[in-house]
Write a structure and sequence with these properties.
Layout (H helix, E strand, L loop, with lengths): L1 H9 L8 E2 L2 E2 L6 E3 L1 H27 L2 H6 L7 H4 L10 E9 L2 E8 L6 H15 L8 H16 L7 E3 L6 H11 L5 E3 L6 E3 L3 E3 L8 E3 L5 H4 L10 H10 L4 E3 L2 H7 L2 H11 L7 H10 L3 E2 L3 H6 L3 E5 L9 E3 L5 E4 L10 E5 L5 E6 L2 E14 L2 E10 L8 E3 L1 E3 L5
Parallel strand pairs: 3-21, 6-7, 6-10, 10-11
Antiparallel strand pairs: 1-2, 4-5, 4-18, 8-9, 12-16, 13-14, 13-16, 14-15, 17-18, 18-19, 19-20
C-alpha cells in the first residue's frame, strides 16, 4: 500500500528526485506542526540569521592573517571582502535541532544551500495529498520575489544576460537550478561544462553571449577555486577575478561564502563568552539560547566531559563529520572524508530528536533535523530531513504539514 501510494504521488513528477542513489529519498509520510510551533521557528530563524548577518561586516574588516587562520583559502581573501548586494546571502538555510522548548542552530548554509525545491514546491503537493495545511504556503512567491530583487540589485543594465548554471549530470543540482530559473523568464540555463571564460574579458554561455549575472545555486566557491580546464588554466580563479573587476555578478554573492565557514560560529561564540559590546544585550541572550559552544580546539569539552562534534570549516551533507564522547573517544563518523583538508571546528553535541516514520523498508526510527530557509534574512520555507546521527546525502526528506487547529 505504501509503495503504491508513494508511486502515485511522486511518480508523476518528472523533474523531481523522489529517489536518489538508487534509494528512497522523499517519504510518503509527514510530520505535523501546529501554527504556534511554526511561528516560533520563524522567529528563532530570523534572530539566528540576524546574528550571522551582523558578523559579516566585521569579518570583512579583519586582517588577512585572521581570515587565513579561520581557514579561508588565500585565493578568496579579496573576493570575500566584496559587498555586492544589500544582503549577506539571498538564499540561506539554517540547520536547527529541537532542544527543550526551543531550538539550537548547528550551522548555516549561506552559500549554496540545497533542499529548496522540496520545501518551496513539493511540500505543497504532499500537503494536498494528506489533506492538511502547508506551513510553507505562499513561500514560492516569496522565493521568486527574492530572486528577482537580487537580480535587479546586481546590475544597472536594462536587459542583463542572466544564466543559471549547475552540473548537468546531477539530477538534484540540475533540477533545483531549473526550478529557480523557471521563475526568471528573461534567463536561460547553461550547464557548467558549457560555460566559456576569457580571462579579464568575461564569462560566456554556449552561444558565445557574454553573461552579466551568473546564478550558481549549487556550485560552491570552495569547489570553484580548484576548477581548471583541460590545459591546466585556473578558470575558477579567473571567474572570481571577473567578479572583483565587476565584469560579472554572481548569486549567491561573495558575502555568502564568508558566512559559509563554520569557524564563524566560533567567532560568534567567542564574542559572546567575552560579553563583547559588538552584540547587544538582547543579541547575547539569543546567542546563549540558540547557539552552541563552538571552538577551534576540543579542550573545553574534554575538561568538562561533554560530547562534541568535530566538523570541517567547509563541508556539506555530513561529509567528514565526527562525533566524540566527553573522553575524546570517537563514537560515530561519516564514511565520506572529502573535506579533511579544511581546519576543523569543535561544537557541543546535542541529540537530535527521534521519530518513527513510514518508508519502503517499513517503519523506521530516525533522527530529525529541521532545515529553515532565510530569504534575504527573512524566514521562509521550513522542513525536515530524517536519518542517522549525522545527517548526510542518504537522509530522507520528510514533508511537513499543519496540524488542524481544534475548533
Amino acid at each position: 500500500m505504501y509503495h503504491t501510494k508513494r508511486l502515485q504521488l511522486y511518480g508523476k513528477l518528472e523533474s523531481f528526485w523522489a529517489d536518489l542513489y538508487g534509494e528512497e529519498y522523499a517519504l510518503y509520510d509527514m510530520k505535523l506542526l501546529n501554527q504556534k510551533e511554526v511561528a516560533k521557528i520563524r522567529l528563532i530563524s530570523e534572530r539566528v540569521g540576524s546574528i550571522f548577518f551582523k558578523i559579516g561586516p566585521l569579518l570583512r574588516q579583519v586582517p588577512d592573517e585572521t581570515l587565513l587562520e579561520m581557514g579561508f583559502p588565500k585565493e578568496t581573501l579579496s573576493f570575500i571582502r566584496l559587498k555586492i548586494l544589500p544582503t549577506e546571502s539571498v538564499i540561506s538555510r539554517l540547520d536547527l535541532i529541537s532542544y527543550g522548548d526551543s531550538y539550537k542552530c548547528i550551522e548555516i548554509n549561506a552559500d549554496t544551500p540545497t533542499f529548496i525545491k522540496e520545501l518551496f514546491s513539493i511540500n505543497e503537493l504532499v500537503c494536498r495529498e494528506f489533506g492538511v495545511g502547508n506551513p510553507n504556503e505562499d513561500m514560492e512567491r516569496f522565493l521568486r520575489q527574492a530572486i528577482s530583487d537580487s537580480i535587479c540589485q546586481s546590475t544597472d543594465k536594462e536587459s542583463p544576460h542572466i544564466v543559471f548554471t549547475a552540473h548537468e549530470d546531477n539530477i538534484e543540482d540540475r533540477e533545483t537550478v531549473l526550478y529557480l530559473q523557471n521563475g526568471v523568464p528573461i534567463s536561460k540555463f547553461t550547464p557548467l561544462h558549457k560555460l566559456q571564460i576569457q580571462r579579464g574579458v568575461g564569462l560566456f554561455d554556449e552561444d558565445g553571449i557574454k553573461i552579466d549575472i551568473l546564478y550558481r545555486q549549487t556550485f560552491p566557491i570552495e569547489s570553484l577555486i580548484t576548477d581548471e580546464d583541460g590545459e591546466g588554466n585556473k578558470i575558477g580563479l579567473w571567474l572570481l577575478e571577473l567578479v572583483k573587476e565587476k565584469k560579472l555578478s554572481i548569486i549567491n554573492p561573495p558575502s555568502s561564502f564568508l558566512l559559509q565557514n563554520k569557524v564563524v560560529q566560533a567567532v560568534i561564540w567567542g564574542l559572546h563568552e567575552e560579553n563583547h559590546s559588538f552584540f547587544t544585550e538582547e543579541e547575547h541572550m539569543w546567542i546563549e539560547e540558540y547557539f552552541l559552544p563552538t571552538y577551534l580546539e576540543s579542550d573545553y569539552f574534554l575538561q568538562r566531559g561533554l560530547s562534541f562534534v568535530k566538523k570541517p570549516a567547509f563541508g556539506r551533507e555530513g561529509d567528514t563529520v565526527e562525533i566524540y564522547n566527553g573522553y575524546g573517544r570517537l563514537l560515530h563518523s561519516d564514511t565520506q572524508k572529502t573535506y579533511s583538508e579544511y581546519i576543523p571546528v569543535y561544537q557541543q553535541f546535542i541529540k537530535h530528536p527521534t521519530i518513527t516514520f513510514n518508508s519502503e523498508k517499513g517503519k523506521q526510527e530516525g533522527h530529525l533535523l529541521l532545515g529553515s530557509f532565510l530569504l534575504n534574512g527573512k524566514s521562509a520555507a521550513l522542513g525536515y530531513r530524517v536519518g542517522g546521527m549525522i545527517t548526510n546525502n542518504l537522509s530522507y526528506y520528510l514533508p511537513v504539514g499543519l496540524l488542524k487547529e481544534e475548533e
